[in-house]
Design goal:
The structure is a single chain. The protein is mainly β. The strands form two sheets. It has a 14-stranded antiparallel beta barrel with strand order 1-2-3-4-5-8-9-10-11-12-13-14-15-16. It has a two-stranded antiparallel ribbon with strand order 6-7. The chain is globular. The N and C termini lie far apart (86 Å). The relative contact order is 0.15.
């Protein structure tokens, strides 16, 4: 019995290595450092976040989106990837990140991501990014990533006759059980208007080699993304992405097109609820649906996403991916409320007390559009906070 268990563990460890070290003949589910998405909001939108990001999650999609961040923020997530595999494998993902606006010097962000497989395989990514407005309507960003993959090394080997012996497989004894390298992402974000943005990003621009054997080649594929996101006055957001993943070492390219919708209900001054959904299609019969919801209570965001691949996956039948994320923004959301009001002029009620700041407290609430105009008419709608006191009649 013990011999059989050791053999199964050894074979599973070797299978994991093969699975993560080569691209599938279809859209791969588990290539080395495969983009599994990050953040429940972006995931529920199918990953169509290239032009939509305005928070810490932009670090993983388009670092130029960091320039839109207005408040310090901390985010975290937990995911169960590809649940329901027939062998009971546990695929998980963690992420924690922080972003800090540096006033007129843009926004810096740092993030840590880990993907693991049943205690046998582990990937870690440490990202450091920066985004800044280059022109009044054009932002740029860059992210540098430290990538490390490692395997749990079996303490047994199987000879040609199928006998189990103590020892270390030659693959690991000659090359170790871990490999690390650096990678980089770059991005641009063009602001068409306050409600529309165009985004462009390139991930793994240097295609780092992550092969365990130094004499082998297993480069991460360069990924190109172009996206558009627009919002109407009814709190409906439409986002689209066109993507191309290329692998120079294996001579393959995958294309995909994603369309996503997000609808918000509620008031930005108290609490809001969002429903999201997306459809992704690509070459080699790739089809994937995603959905989710979000709840925002002032500076706190709770989000959930579910992803199910209809076709094109090489990993086999699964019950989909579940992702939960939490985000908290520090400080006043005064400018976000001003911008929200400019987007939704049909909303009659708006909290003036939030806009005044501690230097001029009040419990007054504007109950109509004309009163709101009088109270904040002298304020700028730019991203930077204004220090002028509220005009009074």
């Amino acid at each position: 019995m013990k011999k059989s268990a050791e053999l199964r563990r050894l074979l599973k460890a070797l299978a994991v290595f093969c699975l993560f070290s080569a691209f599938s003949t279809q859209h791969s589910a588990l290539a080395v450092f495969e983009d599994t998405g990050t953040g429940a909001r972006a995931t529920a939108l199918g990953g169509a976040y290239t032009a939509m990001g305005d928070d810490t999650w932009s670090l993983l999609y388009n670092p130029a989106g960091l320039a839109r961040s207005k408040q310090p923020e901390i985010v975290t997530e937990y995911s169960q990837l590809l649940t329901g595999l027939s062998d009971g494998s546990n695929l998980y993902q963690y992420f924690t990140g922080v972003s800090v606006p540096l006033k007129s010097y843009g926004t810096a962000a740092v993030g840590w991501k880990e993907v693991g497989f049943s205690g046998l395989y582990n990937e870690q990514t440490v990202s450091l990014g920066y985004g800044q407005w280059i022109l009044s309507n054009l932002a740029g960003g860059v992210a540098v990533k430290y990538l490390r993959q490692s395997f749990v090394v079996p303490n047994t080997v199987v000879d040609d006759s199928g006998n189990i012996q103590a020892g270390t497989p030659s693959l690991f004894s000659q090359n170790g059980n871990a490999r690390a390298n650096l990678s980089a992402d770059v991005g641009l974000l063009y602001r068409i208007s306050d409600r529309q943005h165009l985004g462009f990003s390139v991930q793994n621009i240097n295609e780092p080699n992550m092969a365990l054997d130094a004499n082998d080649t297993d480069r991460l594929g360069r990924a190109w993304h172009v996206g558009w996101a627009g919002e109407n006055t009814r709190k409906l957001i439409i986002t689209t992405d066109l993507s191309m993943d290329e692998c120079s070492s294996c001579g393959m390219r995958d294309y995909s097109m994603i369309g996503g919708l997000e609808k918000w209900w509620g008031s930005a001054s108290s609490s809001e609820f969002a429903a999201r959904g997306a459809l992704a299609v690509g070459n080699r019969d790739f089809q994937q649906v995603s959905t989710g919801f979000g709840y925002r209570l002032k500076n706190l965001n709770l989000d959930y996403a579910f992803v199910f691949t209809l076709s094109g996956e090489a990993i086999g039948n699964t019950s989909g991916t579940h992702r939960f994320s939490l985000a908290y923004r520090f400080g006043s959301n005064k400018n976000a409320l001003l911008l929200a009001k400019s987007h939704y002029p049909e909303v009659d009620e708006f909290p003036i007390a939030v806009l005044e700041g501690p230097e001029n407290p009040s419990n007054g609430v504007a109950t109509n559009k004309s009163q709101f105009s009088k109270d904040v008419g002298t304020r700028s709608r730019s991203d930077e906070p204004q220090t002028n006191a509220r005009a009074r009649e």
